[in-house]
Amino acid sequence: MNGMAEPLALLFGQPVTELPQDLYIPPDALRVMLERFEGPLDLLLYLIRKQNLDILDIPMAVVTRQYMDYVEVMHAQQLELAAEYLLMAALLIEIKSRMLLPRPAAQEGEEHDPRAELVRRLLEYEQMKLAAFEIDQLPQAGRDFSWAAVWFDREMVVRLPEVTPVDLKTAWLSLLARAKHTRSHMVKPDELSVREQMGEILKLLAGGRYLEFSQLFDTSRGIPLLVVSFIAMLELTKEGLIAVTQAEPYQPIYVRLAGSEALEPAHG
Amino acid sequence: MAESQESALHDRQHLQLVMETALLVAQEPLSLHDIKKLFAEELRAELLNEVLEAIQSAWVGRGVELVKLASGWRFRARLEFQPYLDRLSPEKPPRYSRAVMETLAIIAYKGPLTRGEIEEIRGVAVSSNIVKTLEERGWIEVVGHRETPGRPGLYSTTRAFLDDMGLKSRTELPPLAELGRLVLPETVETPE
Amino acid sequence: MAESQESALHDRQHLQLVMETALLVAQEPLSLHDIKKLFAEELRAELLNEVLEAIQSAWVGRGVELVKLASGWRFRARLEFQPYLDRLSPEKPPRYSRAVMETLAIIAYKGPLTRGEIEEIRGVAVSSNIVKTLEERGWIEVVGHRETPGRPGLYSTTRAFLDDMGLKSRTELPPLAELGRLVLPETVETPE
């Protein structure tokens, strides 16, 4: 309980100077913002650039504290906190403590700034981050311009296009990119085997056939399939595609396509 | 008067340029309905037909010609250039348009579902040509009907489709949840 | 004399017609090597280049242009016509997430390099989905292996990537921001 309460207290209870100044935003927006960091370097850069700190002379105490605040909030928001974030936290604290240590006088000549390696990594990452943005601005085939594609009817031989699962994936990615409003609805845990089984059941019932409940289960192919078939049947019922009837308790259960009773009057 | 005539001429040249470009780029024949969609303004069919004929005659004597097929207009290489083109390419397999691929992907991932539901996910109409292409290939089939007005057919992919894909089951398709992280939603609205 | 000049002119026009047709039909950029293959006779590269330039200027002011890319020549619609074409088909390739684009940029500017080296620069793990997506798009490929334990693959961007960005070579990529200059000289060495 303590662990959960602490970040919240940090967020709303502490003096302003103790907090990342831009954290006062609604929790949902905060979550979205935190999810947008591409890792600890990205987060650090954000903290440094946001406050116009000198990247060549990083105030370690300030940055470390702010970084830890963000990591705490990420933790509290139950975001998937990659190990890299914690590793960076350890590194920041290490650098901070090395800077506090008095250096032996003998080594003063070749003094090495403990921050140097971090600075180098930050700058290199920032450079690549900018480059990624620039590349994304370039006119891109298919997105910003189209190739000419004149048809050539070679000898009228019918050749069928080849399609691979990769092509399907690519098609789905472009759908995802386009359908931003249906995005959350489209990206949901897999239920493929259920949808597949729904198709199978509909086919079995085609033409208004009545089947006994048990006939729809293929017992020879393992328990997972039985479970999936059952879920598929529930889903079909929910979507109003099939009707399940039972005359009275302990009698056989019949399944038919919804709306097909006109073809065959109900059995008594 | 002369001025408006001049600007009309200019408009027509622009029209011709846009239509020619669209026809050179399109992967499938463009119907008059498609061509209309190119322009924000509502254009008369006669005008478009006139321009199409103008494009057609502008290409006379070239290696490529504009032809009218049952499903629309398309540029096509003249057959007498085949000897040259054959030397070039050791037959590229043809490809389905993105519209066909998206429709197939939706049915594979989300079927059984109706054409209307496919259109909802794609955000655009699904032409009956697309559905026919996939049905004739034996990759999709109607497995039932939704009990709503019009009793629309429910499309599902077939076993032949899985076989052709080299998959044992639809569960072997790339998982959707992971794909979601790879792309950004479009920030720019697509024009209506 | 006059006759042979005339026939030379005729040949050249024919050459131009064949090359234009092949370029309009080709589904990929055509290199000079490809273009040579169109003709049974052996043709000089200078002649072909001259004809390519003639085609290029013949298309000035049209909606489609002939461009030179990393792997050859290809016709494409001018950028300013894309808004019209977008009205026709809203299907577009996806805009990739930052994680994908950063990985791509690192490979483009720092490649060939291993996945581990990419991760070092980004400071986070690079999921195999990201790598696979870029490979499947044909934008990156493994060009060798680092002779360290596990022999990790070295990734590099492909010519198809440059083609799709409309570039002739990696030197045409947007110049890197000169952040490196700010680093103290002693710290510039690569990490161990």
TrEMBL record, chain A:
Assembly description: Component of a cohesin-like complex composed of ScpA, ScpB and the Smc homodimer, in which ScpA and ScpB bind to the head domain of Smc. The presence of the three proteins is required for the association of the complex with DNA.
Location(s) in or outside the cell: Cytoplasm
A Pfam family the protein falls into: SMC_ScpA
Native source species: Chitinimonas viridis
Function: Participates in chromosomal partition during cell division. May act via the formation of a condensin-like complex containing Smc and ScpB that pull DNA away from mid-cell into both cell halves.
Gene3D superfamilies: 6.10.250.2410
Keyword Cell cycle listed: yes
Phylogenetic lineage: Bacteria, Pseudomonadati, Pseudomonadota, Betaproteobacteria, Neisseriales
Keywords: Cell cycle, Cell division, Chromosome partition, Cytoplasm
Protein name as it appears in the record: Segregation and condensation protein A
Broad class of where this protein is predominantly found: cytoplasm
Record has Aminoacyl-tRNA synthetase as a keyword: no
Family classification: Belongs to the ScpA family.
